[in-house]
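Service request form, structural biology core

Requester: graduate student, group of Dr. S.
Request type: structure prediction, single chain
Budget code: on file
Notes: please return the result as structure tokens.

Sequence provided:
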Amino acid sequence: MLSSIRHNATRVAYLAFFTQLVATACDPTAPNDPNNQSKLLGAEASQAVGGSGLTASGVSWFEVDLTWPTSPSASGYQIVRSTAGAAGVYTQLATTTSNVGNFADRAVSGSTQYCYEVRSFKTAGKNTTFSAFSSAACATTPAPPPPPILAPTETEAVPQGNKILVKWKDNSANEDGFRVERSEYLTNSWEGFTVPTNSTSTYGGGTPERLWCFRVTAFNAAASSLPSTPDCTVLPAVPTGLSATVSDAESITLSWTDNSSFEDGYKVSRSEQGGPWTDIATLPTNSVGYRDLAVSSDVSYTYRIQPLKDGGYSDVSEVASAAIPTTVPVAPVLREAGYVLAGDTRMFYLGVVWVDASSNEAGFLIQYSPNGETDWSSYADAPANSTSFVEFLGIESDPTAGCFRVVAFNALGNSTPSNVGCADATSIIQQIVNGTNGVTGAKAPTRPISSHRSVRRRVHESIDVPESDRQGRHRFRIWNDGPPDRDRRKHIRKILFGEGAVGGMRDAGGG
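Core staff response, request fulfilled:
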């Protein structure tokens, strides 16, 4: 009996000891919470990370690197992080295995401070114990780089007159500007220029009949985008030799020389009686003629041709005029004829101004006589609906005195001449002689002369002549007030005969 009692007591003792071991291994109060400092390792101090052993370094705007000394008896390390400074609330970030003494935190943002603490832990069976946390180590990440510059898209090159309009889509919100570059046939090097931020178009240039390609790059102080996909086009050569001929009593036939190998077609425009231009036909590529059937008798029509390409257009041709007459034209009325010196430029001009009294002329003849009575000769011609003729004679030239008159003509003949206007440059010459420069002695021609391009361009710019009218293919087209240039005519006359001009002009009929 006594032995049985002793046997049972021994069993109870063993059971109690086993229950205590199990309870210790499964202790629910083990400190998994990084802020719970209970049941820390005390005797095994070698497992703890030294107070100054943890280092943190912000190596980039998206990474902080941690390092700490390791202990051979530790099972691993627990890393906690605070985004509110060293005294802030820490949350668990990661754990590492034994003998791993570094960690790269890539869950960070630029220009932000992060603080870290590390402690070691040891696992024995199901029991885990922790060391004290290290001192905090903080690091601030560098500023992030600026966002990438998005490349422009939808680049388009379209001929417009004697220039090329370059358009694109601006996809970037942080560019300082754009660089527009040009290459011939995509084989030569790229050259270009810059335009301001938020631009979406600009003008480039190029020699006609050659393939010009354009691309656009966005840029700022830090970087540049990739270039856009290039787009290429050609400025078609302008047709020449435009003529307008009365075919019969109901039509006018146009003909011209096709000088381009790249045009998509041609646009025919017409002005009636000096009015605005109206597009009357679009023709296919390689066209060299057109018959206008929508005409009336005794009405002056002026025509021009324009090549089309890639949804745009090249420069316009010279103009040609025609009318289906039933009578000869009515004589024009001469208003002014004289030599003028434009402002302080010392550039001599001949100016002849008249009133167009006819509705069916095909053009005008300006005639010259040394005395205003005999020896009349043809000096120049001008298109239908013109009311003035201006010619540059030279710088500090000495024009010869003479007289002018104007004759209108059509297919049936010439009108009677206008009244006569005579010009004498004596007063202008005297003013120059009395000034700082003398007269060169060059005489005015008795036949049409070609204008000097550089001087003509300066005059064009001073009176805002459109670029499309500066080509100089036909000087009377440039200087006459044919359609639709009535407003410009007033400006030209003001420059040449009004304010800023020196005298030396006589009214029509003056001898």
